[in-house]
Structure formats: structure tokens, C-alpha cells
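User: Second chain of the day. Same drill as before.
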Amino acid sequence: MPTHPIVAALRGRLGTDVPLATDADVLAAYSHDRAPWLAHGAPLAMVAPGDVDGVRHVLELAAEHRVPVVPRGAGSGLTGAANAVDGCLVLSTHRLRPEPRLDVDDRLVRVGAGTLNGEVKQAAAGVGLLYPPDPASSAFCSIGGNVATNAGGLCCVRYGVTRDWVRELDVVLPGGEALRVGHTAPKSVAGLDLVSLLVGSEGTLGVVTGATLALTRGPDRLVTVVASLPSLAAAGDVVLALRDRPEPPVLLEIMDATTIRAVEELAHLGLDVEAAALVLVQLPEEADGAGAAGPAGVEDVCRAAGATEVYATTEPDEARALLQARRLAYEAFERRGLPLLEDVAVDVSRLPALIAAIAGVAERRGVTIGTFGHAADGNLHPVILVEHDTPAARVLAQSAFDDVVEETLALGGTLSGEHGIGRLKLPYLARQLDPVALRLMQQVRAAFDPLGLMNPGSSLPA
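Assistant: Same format as last time:
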């Protein structure tokens, strides 16, 4: 097959120092994210600029040649938002990673799109500060990807999501125009809030190349509580009892029996495999001694709900091991078969109803569903597991996936709490959004990308 003219144009514009791959094996590795169910196309090339000018050149040439562009961060996404389409350029931002620049006085850090979430945390911790957004994949997901999906994570209940910590964004628009939006000041209402618009846009409005992120002071010490519950309903009761406390927890996570056993099989962490559910709670140690607001109060709530075992620790290593159990949940299912991951959210008061509905889907369809997630946000991640990959098993799993979506929407919930829409959830989006709102979103997208070249087929219907 003859080489597309844009490949030669890119080599001429970018020089030999910028990775530009057309080899089939390399392209295969850069053509998809971690969502195993979704098809992907064959890109013309993968290009990985190391600076903003390189990104500008790529988008300028893409517009000149009318070639679609699929931006990609670390590839840790779970909805196919970084999946290639036929004849596209995959633009990887993994080389956009200058050394983080800290401003301790104003509690800010300047990073590149390719900087990993865990690297930002480490840099902040070195000066006694905290970057709170904490996806389970924080060790290997990038800030550019976090911004693109408005990633959440384990600490959302206390600290919010990525959007809440982004002050400025550096962006290259379709066609190659570069700009910075937002402001470092804690408050600014000068003009429309383009930062909030770009966060969560999944690479459809432009390519994020850098960000100024806010930092905070975290608690000096944390108490971690894990409780074994006799039923998912009891776990839901614990969540409801803890959500309105004067001192909000740092995190409040839930794992069902299927998830507990999958994680224990993978990591041998000594989890209670007889429990119907585990609840993980973390809160500042300074709340200790504060009656119902302290760790003892958390233990009392768990025991009142029928907990068969409650354990609390202030040891950081023990806490990390307990939280590692939650972070390994998706990987544990990946090891057991083909996981179809949901990311649904409801009002917290309706969390027990959603948990019951998911269990009902599993029983009705005769499929294995493991449920875990950020219970205090009403955000659950049911995993429909195909242990023996056959066409019939995939059809059955897809039917269960559809059912979970329907149950969530019936409860007034949302298709995605933090993973984004990508390609996985695109067929369902119109069922949640007001048609006028959807039309406005499409018009906004067209204003940024009039040629329709940015991540086509993702995030919003054409």
C-alpha cells in the first residue's frame, strides 16, 4: 500500500527526533485502550511530539490533508475513547512531560499532558502538599488522559474530581492554533469557563498539552477502616449512614463477594472471602475522639449494620495494602476472563436500589457480575465477566450490560460517573441527554472542530 502523503509531510516538518511509526506491530499497540470489547481501526501512523510546536505541526497537517486525529494519553482508558479509526493519525502525548514546576506559596503545580498522576502526587508530597484526584490507575495514567475524561477515583467523596483541581489548560485546537485557558487565581469569572468545557471532552475539541493544577494540604495521618458485611444491602446501609457525617471520609469504597474473591485469587492479601461485601473507609486521624465523627463511630456504624469483622489501622503500609485490594479489582477480572466494565452513578440515596438492580440483572441473565466502586458518590463499576469467550457468551454479556444501563437510567442515574463515554457508551447517550442539550453539544464541537477531524465516532454522536 502506498504511503499517505501526510506521513512524508510529517517527517519533513517534525524532523527525525520525533517518533513517527508506520510499522504494523507498533500501530497495533497504539490503536486501542484497555476496553477489550471494542473494535479499532487501522491508523496511518502514530506520532508522538515532545513539545507544543510538534503538536501544532501535526494538527496543521491533519487539517491540510483532511486526516482524522485520535489523541491518546497513556492508554489506560476503559471506554475506547483512544481507539483508532481507519486512516487516522494517533497522536500520543506521552512525551509531553517536562519536570513538574511547583509553586508552594500558591499551592500550584505546572505539568505536561504526559506526566503521570502518580508523579504529580509524588512531587506534591515532596513539599508537604497533596494532589487529590486518585484514579485506581494513578501509577500509570497520565494527566492528559485524566483531563480528557474528567477522571475521578477513590477520594472523590472528599475532594471531588479532576475538573475541581484544574486551574489552567494549554490546548492545541484542530488546525494547529495553540492557546492557554483558565487562570491561576482561585476565582475568575472573566468570560465563559472554557476549562470546564475542555475537561471531559475526550479529545474531541483539541489536544491538551499541559495543565496548571491546584494542590492542597492533606491530613497528616489517616485512619483506614475495613468492614466485612453479611450482604450488599447491609453495605449500602453503611454508606448511607456515613455519607452525612460532619467530617466527610477521604474515601468510602465497596467491593462485593465476587470482587473480593477475584482480588484474593490474584494478590493473596488475606481478604475475608466469606464476606458478602467489604466496605473500605479512610478518614483523618484528627477526627479520632470526636464521637460519631471519629473512627470508633465508623466502627459502630458498621457493627450496627451487622458487620462480622471490623479492622482499623493508622499504619501507612497496612492502609496501602488494604487500598491495593480495591485498586486491583479490574485487573483481577482481566486475569479471569473478558471483562465488560460499567461505570454508572446514581444519587447516593438510590445506591441500595442500584446494587439490588445489578444483582437482579446477574440472576436474570445468568451471568457473573462483580461490583465495586466509589460508594459515597453513588458511582459503581459492575464488571460483567465472560470467562469462556464465545459469540453466545458475548451476546449474553452485552444484554446484561444493556440491562444495567436501563436500570441506572430508570433510577435517574447517569451512564458515566468518571470513565467517559468514548465509543463504549455512545449508543446510549441520547437516552440520557435532553435532545436540545445534545444538539447544543454538537454545535459546540463543530465550533471547535469544523472539519470533524478530532476523535470521530467518540464522545458525542455525529
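DSSP finds 16 helices and 17 strands in the chain.

User: Great, on to the next one.
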